[in-house]
Design goal:
792 residues, globular, five-stranded antiparallel β-sheet, six-stranded antiparallel β-sheet, 39% helix, alpha+beta, single chain
């Protein structure tokens, strides 16, 4: 089991940023320690014993942590996860708890400074790039790949089961399992895609089709017996007529008899009558009635039947005359009869895939053309050069389909289907090398695949494949140049949809349900506009290569009429979004956008806890542990009105010592956003109470309102840069961050800061990083001795 890394940089650490973010690109040089060099035994262990061991010792240590047995640095490094937690708690002043003796600032710095440096050096010494579990395409990647590979945008993966999420994203190899149901879906999707892309001559062959009453439209309504026409009405279906000639239309029907006549029925094609029938059959034994119609132009047409002689008399004394005559239609069938098939027009996708044809009408020529077609298709589908044997298997699949009576096109279509269910298409395969070693550089095609699914959520395009074939992608400068090219491509919008949608939790916006009584201005149009604003804001930073610090604060956003009205801006009208300058200071950056504020609220009120936790985890990279068991939720009394402001009720809630330690870190941040209600609209009052949007953090930092909070977060820009790098690296790799990634992430974050925090620099540091370009090599299992056993 891999050891995962939980970020430990705390909010409000007393240390200077240079100590908080250890940015060593390589391990410090080994040298003989000087007599004044800090050591765990001399500088840390005595302080841990003085301030921590009284609570954290033995089997029943507080929070399950026992520190008394750690007396040497070597022992501490073996329990890295535990000491990560110690660093977080001590640096944030979360520990020791209030009422207990506290270390001086110098003592606190000694503990945190040594541990951070020692852990960082140990991480750098590992020099492991990590391994990505063989992972399949997720739903978004599958749809985009089909679009770019085949040329049909039909989104077949929308019918797949939802992808599991790990480490905040749905492209993590560890959780992308394959179930029997998904295998069935893959096969169905491959057939659907291949049929949509390649039209075979046999597709145009007209066949008999049958429609039951549930598919009828028009007058009457279907029930268990069929569609009843109780007056002079019509019912029928839309059907494709794939050819010219005679078609027979058969209808199974019966009448409810009344009067002197049987029910009369007419047949219509696009409203024009082409036959009549007298329906004498009754419910116990419905009859089948038919009429022929000649079709001169192939296409989709409406076939209906109508009731011609409605009758109703409930006053006659003659039993044969009294009653209600009705016509019931149960089924409609269309059968071609002496029909010339319509020619099948090749689609644009077909012209791209079938770029050559057999030179003559022999199996040898068909195989040769198929081999040429499938060699090109498989190279793009598998995202690498293909072997002769791999192409040969696809050619044999096509030949087998032709032997069953299929055309050349049908054979290729079957081979395409086979390629689309191959593991080489469904998975991002990075094969193990034959030679040993601890790590290896990915080959150029593997780099092309990582890069394209990182930035586009789709397959590499031809420029990437050409560079890979030339062996140039392993050059970091070429890799950076291609990344910047790809960020300017429209397909980079996938970053906003798939990365930002999960990092910022925008996907939750579609399912939140604010109380319509309390928030009547929240509508579906506003909900949609909220997400569009944030996606356009993210995309703008990417396309214009702006600073990632603008996620924290800026003087602009993107609005249309409905969202501008919701925000209180009167000078923006219409449905079109445009960039708008922010002048009031009420908003700026992503944190004050209604999408984020809504997904971090409850349906009937704001949630400073959710908002504070969201900022801690997604902006500052300081995860908050789950609430202790048996701690009650903040009261939402439905039996009567709640007393006091939300802030006052929360302050009472965190009087519980089990709650206070975490809430004192989260709540102040959430209080800074209290001027926004549960759907992100600006307010100054909470009911009859004036809102207090001030906050004071454990490190003593104070702010007032969202403007003050944004200023505070800007002062923590190094922490945000590190968090953003870590999140984007997780998404780029498709795996969780591990302990040995910490050294690389620290160095990457520092490099981003030195280069102005531009988005392209974040991407450049990621795609040229060791975790992205290399992979750890799994040690092969030792070969078992070949022991021969003599059997007597």
């Amino acid at each position: 089991m891999r050891k995962r890394f939980t970020p430990f940089h705390p909010l409000g650490a007393v240390l200077p940023i240079g100590v908080l973010v250890i940015g060593a690109a390589a391990a410090p040089p080994k040298a003989k320690p000087a007599s004044n060099t800090p050591t765990f035994e001399k500088n840390v262990a005595p302080l841990i014993k003085k301030y921590c061991v009284s609570c954290h010792s033995g089997d029943k240590g507080a929070a399950g942590i026992s520190l008394h047995e750690y007396t040497t640095g070597a022992q501490a490094l073996k329990a890295r996860g535990l000491w990560d937690r110690v660093v977080t708690a001590v640096a944030s002043k979360h520990m020791p708890p209030k009422g207990m003796p506290e270390p001086t600032p110098a003592e606190r710095e000694a503990i945190v400074g040594y541990l951070q440096t020692a852990l960082s050096k140990a991480d750098c010494d590992l020099k492991e790039p990590g391994r990505v579990t063989l992972r399949r395409l997720n739903r978004a990647e599958y749809n985009n790949t089909i679009r770019d590979l085949v040329g049909v945008d039909i989104k077949p993966a929308d019918a797949f089961p939802n992808d599991d999420v790990g480490y905040g994203f749905d492209n993590i190899g560890d959780v992308l399992s394959v179930s029997p149901l998904l295998l069935e879906k893959y096969l169905a999707a491959a057939r659907k895609v291949a049929r949509a892309a390649i039209h075979a001559p046999e597709d145009g062959q007209p066949t008999k089709v049958r429609f039951n009453a549930t598919r009828f439209t028009g007058d009457g309504a279907p029930d268990a017996q069929g569609v009843m026409l109780y007056s002079n009405g019509q019912t029928g279906v839309e059907a494709d007529f794939n050819g010219t000639g005679m078609f027979l239309v058969r209808v199974r029907a019966f009448e409810q008899h009344a009067g002197k006549e049987n029910a009369k029925m007419a047949f219509y094609l696009d409203g024009k009558e082409f036959g009549q029938a007298t329906v004498s059959a009754r419910i116990k034994k419905p009859g089948v009635y038919e009429a022929g119609v000649r079709v001169e132009q192939p296409g989709r047409k409406r076939v209906t039947v109508g009731f011609l002689n409605d009758y109703y008399d409930d006053k006659s004394t003659d039993p044969q005359l009294k009653g209600d005559r009705n016509l019931i239609i149960q089924e409609l069938e269309i059968e071609p009869h002496n029909v010339v098939p319509a020619p099948v027009k090749p689609s644009l996708a077909q012209k791209r895939i079938l770029f050559t044809r057999p030179t003559n009408d022999t199996e040898t020529a068909r195989d040769a053309a198929t081999r040429e077609i499938m060699a090109r298709f498989a190279r793009r589908a598998y995202r690498r050069p293909v072997t002769t044997e791999e192409v040969g298997k696809l050619v044999r699949v096509a030949a087998a389909a032709r032997k069953l009576g299929g055309s050349f096109e049908q054979g290729v279509r079957t081979a395409v289907t086979a390629a689309l269910v191959s593991p080489n298409f469904l998975f991002m395969v990075e094969k193990e090398p034959a030679t040993g070693g601890k790590k290896r550089l990915l080959n150029d095609f593997e780099l092309a695949t990582r890069l394209s699914y990182f930035l586009w959520s789709s397959m590499p395009d031809e420029p990437l494949m050409i560079l890979a074939a030339q062996g140039k992608l392993r050059n970091p400068d070429v890799l950076i140049a291609q990344a910047k090219r790809m960020l300017n491509d429209p397909k980079a919008s996938a970053l906003a949809e798939n990365f930002a949608g999960q990092w910022l939790q925008l996907r939750k916006l579609s399912v939140v349900a604010p109380d319509p009584q309390k928030y009547p201005t929240f509508s579906e149009a506003v909900r949609k506009a909220m997400r569009t604003e944030t996606e356009m804001y993210f995309t703008g930073i990417v396309r214009e290569d702006r600073s990632i610090l603008e996620f924290l604060d800026s003087n602009y956003t993107y609005l249309n009429g409905p969202l501008a009205g919701f925000y209180g801006y009167s000078d923006v009208q219409g449905q079109e979004f445009r960039r708008v300058a922010l002048k009031t200071g009420q908003r700026g950056g992503i944190l004050t956008q209604a999408s984020i504020l809504t997904v971090t609220s409850n349906p009937n009120r704001t949630s400073p806890v959710k908002r504070g936790k969201w900022v801690m985890e997604n902006i500052l990279g300081s995860p908050i542990p789950a609430a202790p068991p048996n701690v009650p939720q903040l009261a939402d009394d439905k039996k009567g009105p709640l007393t006091g402001t939300l802030r006052q009720r929360m302050e009472q809630h965190r009087d519980n010592p089990a709650c206070a330690s975490c809430h004192q870190r989260m709540d102040p941040i959430g209080f800074g956003l209290e001027n926004y209600d549960a759907v992100g609209a600006w307010r100054t009052m909470d009911g009859t109470d004036k809102i207090d949007a001030s906050g004071t953090l454990p490190d003593g930092a104070s702010f007032d309102g969202s403007a003050g909070l944004r200023k505070y977060l800007m002062s923590k820009k190094e922490m945000f840069a590190r968090t953003f790098v870590e999140r984007l690296l997780t998404y780029a790799l498709g795996r969780g961050i591990e302990v040995h990634d910490r050294c690389n992430i620290d160095a990457m974050a520092q490099q981003v800061g030195k280069r102005g925090y531009r988005f392209s620099e974040v991407v450049a540091t990621i795609v040229t990083s060791e975790p992205f370009r290399y992979k750890s090599v799994e040690k092969p299992e030792p070969k078992k001795a070949n022991v021969k056993v003599a059997v007597k």
